[in-house]
């Protein structure tokens, strides 16, 4: 296994793969506010979502930006170059799943 694959799994091994991929992909689709991300992941708590966002920020996959013209001040999350590099990989994984699902719903894990 290449060092880059090991690096990927090292930084992502502490949290659920489904959650991180959903967060990264959702931010890439402009669902970049906390409440929008929460709608994408309704079965996780706000605390878990907050921790995962902080983890992604720690690893420079996202940055947190204040929106000063909102009251109270809003926060949006933006993918860094490193985060943007993940998007085509996630899209390829999604395409692979669609191709091999044969019309069946695939359930790998439950978030509830």
UniProtKB/TrEMBL annotation:
Keyword presence, Transcription: yes
Identification of the protein by name: Helix-turn-helix transcriptional regulator
Domain HTH hxlR-type: 1-105
Organism expressing this protein natively: Pedobacter frigoris
Keywords, in A-Z order: DNA-binding, Membrane, Transcription, Transcription regulation, Transmembrane, Transmembrane helix
Highest taxon in the source lineage: Bacteria
One term of GO molecular function: DNA binding
Span of the signal peptide: none
Transmembrane segments: 6-28
Pfam families (alphabetical): HxlR (PF01638)
